[in-house]
Amino acid sequence: MTRALLGFGPLDWLLSGAVQVLRGMPFDWARYMPEALLATLLLAPVCGMVGVFVVNYRLAFFSDAISHSAFSGVAAGLVLVSAGLAWVDPRWTLLALGLIVGLLVTTVKRRTDLGTDTIIGVAFSAAVALGIALVTANREVQRAFPQYLYGDVLLVDLPSLRVAFIVGVALSLYLLWSFNRLTLIGFNADLARTRGTRVAIYDYSFAVLLVLLVTTAIPLTGMLLVTALLVVPAAAARNLSRSCAAMFWVAAGIGLVSGVGGLILAYEQNTAAGAAIILLATAIFALSLIPRALRRG
Could you tell me if 277 and 256 are in contact, meaning their C-beta atoms sit under 8 angstroms apart? Predict the structure, then answer.
């Protein structure tokens, strides 16, 4: 009853139904990991679309800092669990620390004259150092940590799908609604201000949504490779597109193909899904260099 009142009843019914449909497909890989496949369908295209702005804003290092802050967030959650707080979920401590780092970096960037790469470098280093300190101090954490580091499709469950659905839909609507403003800010923030765009609001909102996407995608790709899921499809789309709008949709398509194709490769080759997804995306990027070279030639 409580779940239905919160709105999770219909959503859980929808997601559970989608999982059952995928499980009924005539493919072994779909029956083996229907939850991971559904999460990929929800998140991979959005990662490609967000990646367009990550590439155009030169925020790859920022998203990398968020993914590595997750290192400390997961470690903190696992430490709390090993200390007897069984109700703590490392996925929530991961998200909490990611939001703290993302908002802190954005605030310092806006209020000081320090270079963005310098600010991110400091946050990146501190987050990794804290994570290493927590992991090396606790053997139980060391045993549980690799599944977050490398990703594990079996980590994807109904609560994960619920978050993936909400984040995917929210980010898609946000990007479609603010596409022109975000594009203008990336091109020239001062010009955007003169045209009435509240740049600060978009800076903070994009940072928060980027954190949500990165932390939600970690079970699929792992902390080490989650940034690549944003950057590589967008970089390939940039080679294949003649406008920012075209790049947006091409990146979504490449993200989807890389995500689903990578899951299939991971199943067939018995390897990590995140690695297979990124290797396939990288192969697409390499192929995208051919038409770019031909146009220049």
Answer: no
Closest-CA residue to 175 (of 236, 249, 231, 232): 249
Cβ(48)–Cβ(255) under 8 Å? Answer: yes
Residue 281 burial (C-beta neighbours within 10 Å; 0-12, 13-18, 19+): buried
Token readout for 104 is 């802190």
How far apart, in whole angstroms, are the C-alpha atoms of residue 32 and residue 153?
10
What CATH code is assigned to 2-19+28-296? 1.10.3470.10
pLDDT one-digit tens code per residue, 29-60: 888 888 889 988 998 999 999 888 888 777 66
Q: Hey, is 225 helix, strand or coil? A: coil
Using CA atoms, how far apart are residues 97 and 82, in angstroms rounded to an integer?
19
Positive or negative, the Cα torsion across 16, 21, 26, 27? negative
- Say if residues 212 and 47 touch (Cβ distance below 8 Å): no
d(CA 167, CA 11) in angstroms, rounded, equals 13
CA 196 to each of CA 41, 185, 202, 279: distance values in angstroms, whole numbers, following the listed order? 36, 11, 12, 42
Copy the structure tokens of residue 220.
């699929």
Q: What is the pTM of this model?
A: 0.81
Instruction: Report the distance separating Cα 78 and Cα 135, nearest Å.
Output: 9
> What pLDDT is stored for residue 144 in this prediction?
65
DSSP for 140-188 reads HHHHHTHHHHH--GGG--HHHHHHHHHHHHHHHHHHHHHHHHHHHHHH-
